[in-house]
Amino acid sequence: MTRAKLGDRVVLLVAPAAAVIVLLFVYPFLYGLVLSFRPLSGGVLGNYVTFFTSRSLWPTMFTTLRLAVPATAINVALALPIAYLMRRPTRYQKLVTTILVVPMTLGTVLIAEGMLTYLGPKGWLSQLLQLIHLTSEPVHLTHNYTGVLLSLIVSGFPFVFLLLLSYVSGIDPVLGKAAATLGAGPWQQFRHVYLPLLLPGLAMAFCLAFVQAFSVFPSAVLLGAPAGPTRVISIAAYEAAFEQYDYSLASCVAMIMGAVQLVVVAAVLGVRRALYRGPVAGGKG
Amino acid sequence: MNYFPGSRMHDFDSLRLERVTRRFGKPGSPAALHELSMTIARGEFVALLGPSGCGKSTALNCIAGLIPLSGGAIWLNDDRLDLLPPEKRGFGMVFQNYALFPHMTVRRNVQFGLMMRRVAAAERDRRTARALELVQLTGHEDKLPGQLSGGQQQRVAIARAIVVEPRLVLMDEPLSNLDARLRLEMRAEIRRIHRELGRTTLYVTHDQDEALSMADRIVVMQDGTVQQIGTPEEVYAQPANLHVARFMGFRNLLELDVEEVTGREVALRGPWGVLRGTVKQAPGGRRAVAAIRPDEIAIGPAGAPNAIAGEVEGVEYYGRDCLVEIAAAGGLRLYARTQRPIERGAVVHAAVAPDRVLVYPGSS
């Protein structure tokens, strides 16, 4: 048997896995794509025309971006310093990591319930602030933009933190030591050694967290104002599918959602490439 | 510019280690480094030698400031150093795995220390070029570390450490990741750089050949404690104790009864007869250990003075000579080097001059 033939046969081993991916991912995606071009009324692009001309549809794209981009940026900015400080195993590392990761296990709905209780106009925080006379009016942190943003931060942070922690601890600590012996203080070690090596990881964490935040749905409904300021794109898709029973339009919204995510991810990776051209996995000089 | 206090070479006369101790884990646990005291003079090349886990790397990291001391002090002339963070000590360090910054070019790696010291650009470029020339890497400035071979990476690491003109160069097993040929080459290279720049160097290694061939002075360590400090000649020929002897290639360590001690001369009683030796460390008890290098043993016919009779059990061919394993009376095993062709099963007499038999105290 020639090597080429053997190679052909080895490729067959991938077939079962490939079949699963095609059935569970590629087929539904293509089905949705085709469906979006078969509107209930109008031409092939009818749904897309509807989306970009309807006042109730196209603004959802920007509403979602206004939530997802800041939430992701805040999460990455918060998680980076904490992950950096946790890079060396210490007595507190496990405890801190556990506390920070707990929200991940709770699920969006439970977090929303809790936040309604604590942060609502009659919640503890509002009452406490009034009690110590920092404000005379009840504080409105729920059923608006802030509520959804806070919920995205709480539920998204653990994921970003864990991801960055693994990137940070993947960097050989001897690099920081080498920088120290060359005269770099803690800030300079971070600025010149860790940060550049973390850039690929930061970009990756941003992309994954953004994709998650962009598809926000439960907290936008429970903690936001789903009729107005937090009418996110997934709400538009839900309404099209399950209130108007227009699966074709819903598919179109989903396709646009995917396209926006793709554009942002491509932009972030493009910036990363422009800033950093070294090896992807830092550490092993 | 006095960002680094006393960083100019002429105000460094000696580095003094005073009972430097480092414990890992709970207080009371055995120290990884126990009361290391020594003085290193300017321009010296000192090797810390010992098996892995002997505390030599701990000592180096303590001096670099990368791990805090559990006890003792480090002085540079009259400045106490051990409380300063590593970035304030002004030492250059070369790491075993090079520790080059993978995202920086060779030039930026070498310049790193100068940037941290805010050296002006023109001066920085001049010194970087000079350092790269010294390690023979001119022309590789714009490469990333990943594009260089192991030997080249280690040269960059050396250039990066010396370009800042450190008061002390610390090297932590810098050659142990290189292949045998390259190791020999880099050994000579490091010696040459030391000769040219005269930088005080502290070099950690587990390889006695490296220590013997490179250092002005050797500190032999074992279990966190200093066993001997001396010139290569002293450490090689006159090991202070059994640990050092074992590490310096005294492969034959025969524990025997003491028969008679007269001054420095000693007679030991073996199952085959008497073995005469020289006292290195006075044997207190009845038993003593005779330490003999395989290459000090001459294999000859019967009747030679101070000879041990035995049967050849194995012969290992080394090209230049052979290592012969001899089973002597009483279950003792001897190793000897010889250039003579020898067969397994032959009965031989292993003779050794009494001044080449070093006698240390036995276990009881």
Task: Write up what this structure looks like.
- The complex is a heterodimer of chains A (285) and B (364).
- Chain A is mostly helical and 285 residues long.
- Helix content of chain A is 73%, strand content 0%.
- Chain A contains 13 helices and no strands.
- In chain A, α6 (108-119) packs across α8 (145-169).
- Mean pLDDT of chain A is 88; it is low at 280-285.
- In chain B, the strands form four sheets. Chain B has a six-stranded mixed beta sheet, with helices on both faces. In chain B, strands 11-12-13-20-14 form a five-stranded mixed barrel.
- In chain B, a hairpin with a 4-residue loop joins β16 (307-317) and β17 (322-328).
- The termini of chain B are far apart.
Give the helix tally of chain A: 13
Helix-strand makeup class of chain A: mainly alpha
Shape of chain B: elongated
Given the helix and strand composition of chain B, which structural class is it? alpha+beta
Number of strands of chain A: 0
- How much helicity do the residues of chain A have? over 70%
Instruction: Compute the average pLDDT of chain B.
Output: 89
Radius of gyration of chain B: 25 Å
Major sheet details of chain A? none
Structure keywords:
heterodimer, A: 285 residues, mainly alpha, 0% strand, disordered C terminus, B: 364 residues, alpha+beta, six-stranded mixed β-sheet, five-stranded mixed β-barrel, 8 helices, 20 strands, disordered N terminus
Task: Describe, in short, the structure shown.
Chain A is mainly α.
SSE diagram, text form:
The complex is a heterodimer of chains A (285) and B (364).
Chain A: H1 3-12, H2 15-36, H3 46-53, H4 58-85, H5 93-106, H6 108-119, H7 124-131, H8 145-169, H9 173-181, H10 186-214, H11 218-222, H12 233-242, H13 247-275
Helix pairs in contact in A: 2-13, 3-13, 4-8, 4-10, 4-12, 5-8, 6-8, 8-10, 9-10, 10-13, 12-13
Chain B: E1 14-22, E2 33-41, E3 45-49, H1 56-64, E4 71-76, E5 79-80, E6 91-94, H2 106-116, H3 121-134, H4 150-162, E7 168-172, H5 180-197, E8 201-205, H6 208-214, E9 217-222, E10 225-230, H7 232-237, H8 242-247, E11 252-262, E12 265-270, E13 273-279, E14 287-292, E15 298-300, E16 307-317, E17 322-328, E18 333-338, E19 347-351, E20 358-361
Parallel strand pairs in B: 3-8, 3-9, 6-7, 7-8, 13-20
Antiparallel strand pairs in B: 1-2, 1-4, 4-5, 9-10, 11-12, 11-14, 12-13, 14-20, 15-19, 16-17, 16-19, 17-18
